User: Fold these one by one.
Assistant:
Number 1:
Amino acid sequence: ARELGGSRVEFYLPELGQQARRRVELEAALRDAVLRDELSLAIQSQFSPDGAVRSGEVLVRWLNGPQGRPVSPGEFIPVAESSGLIKPLTLQVLSQSLQILKELARHGVQCPLSVNFSSILFHDDAFIDGVIELIGESGVAPTSLVIEITESLFIDNHAGLLDNIARLSFFGIRFSLDDFGTGYSNLAYLKKLHLSELKIDKRFVDNLPRDDDNRTIVRSILSIARQLRLKVVAEGVEMAAQADFLAAHGCDLLQGYLLHKPEPAAAWLARVMKNTQ
Ligand code: C2E
Ligand code: CA
Ligand code: CA
Ligand code: CA
């Protein structure tokens, strides 16, 4: 019956589990949303310990998902990755981010943006060509863009992956290693990734400065980063005591609800430009 095509799919749906059905529904709706360019951006500011906004992280938003309800990236990014939609999705996120960077540059505001890239994207040379072309055409300085990659990169090691990271790096784009400490990183490997920054995962920031283990882990990360001349961003900062501990131990940038919650890109842009006039 499968060969009969699309009209037959519904026939099978009741037999699928609840989870599988949600996935099929999400993938179809996400395909439409990407086709119609309906995804939007939120931006969360990153602060130096003196309280100044230095940069921002771009977070994709799907506000109008199935039944008109928002879907979190934690749910739809894995669907995008397994369906190939991650490529057009990332190009749309990048293209909207470049528009914002153009506006900032036009007003003389220096504020780099970080964009999240799934590791599977680095296996596709043609996709990386497209990224370089898009940035080139935009006229935005590649140095104002940071790409966040995660430690899962270490698991699916692939020859072309390092080459593509190197290509983007030689083009001027900087790299940040997201969720640092949660994977299986081999410290020697850090050098090969052309990194300029590490992000300490929220789980190590939680319960600072009370938790002995997290205190030790965070101090070690900061010390490794200093020796490798990498900047450090702490994510998930929710309490002043965490910010104080991180600042006292030399963390470069703080990000979290304590300082700023992700906000729609247009509102973020307007506010950042007003505050720097
Ligand atoms: P992430 O890259 O680790 O991003 C940080 C997440 O933590 C964001 O969730 C952010 O809203 C949230 N967050 C920030 N500060 C705090 C805080 O103080 N407390 C708590 N509890 N949470 C905080 P969000 O926006 O739901 O994104 C979830 C994940 O989805 C991201 O985790 C990232 O892995 C992925 N993601 C988001 N946008 C993109 C994208 O454009 N492309 C790709 N490939 N992945 C994305
Ligand atoms: Ca991130
Ligand atoms: Ca993160
Ligand atoms: Ca995280």
Number 2:
Amino acid sequence: SRIVTVGAAQLGPIARNDTRSQVVSRLIALLTQASQHGCDLVVFPELALTTFFPRWYFEDQAEIDQFFEREMPGPETRPLFEAARELGIGFYLGYAELAEEEGRTRHFNTSILVDKTGAIVGKYRKIHLPGHAEHEPWRQFQHLEKRYFETGNLGFPVFRAFGGIIGMAICNDRRWPETYRVMGLQGVEMVLIGYNTPVHNPPAPEHDNLSHFHNQLVMQSGAYQNGSWVVGVGKAGNEEGVMQIGNSIIVAPSGEIVGACSTLGDELAVARCDLDLTQSYKSTTFNFARHREPQAYGLIVER
Ligand code: CDT
């Protein structure tokens, strides 16, 4: 067996004027708790350093950029990396990334994978950006990810770390089967996912009371259909007047939920995940080399 003990480190709300340092101390408290439970790896939510700012319409780019990190680690986030190194725990962290690339300033919704020495060993930039690009005043709150972020340009890479093959996705990515399958085709054994999911979906309020069901449905099927562990972690509770789901879960390759948070606050759920449990799925029902029929799937990439 290859055991990775994982902590799903759910966060409660982050207020708009909370400082990075305040948030980082909450992250370090969860990391310390995880260390006491013997965790190898801790998963934090999407955009885990600030409030979920795409809920507001801003015109001033300088105001928007205040939610972004220009370096990682930077002065306020370095203590988190130091704590990880001292405790010997890795982590997944979601944050808003401001990058100078191709001669221009670029904005991405990003996650990183940090190993037990505090080194960044993987980066992912969110591909499925939900919401809208223009101000829509009819909504109770905005979801302006298409305005504030560019589509990720790194594909869905996987990383050899923690004794296995680890992949990352961010929030809305978890609803798309292609996300898991592209990593499944690279042999992924554990997919780490942070999210911020409002209970209320303004264009489709009829889905509101299904938000937990859909959260579990997509991650349980993604896990089973690719013979992979999936760890999904939310920023939960009433954040600046918007209710977000918690329901952070750790899903086995069988599709079963083996660990879960039950509050809407800062909470750690822990599971001992055997990466070798992926094998009985990857070598039988979902033996891709043997049973996939890609010649019949062309439409998926043509449209
Ligand atoms: N952050 C993020 O991607 N949230 C979306 C809400 C989209 S509205 C259905 C999510 O998929 O949870």
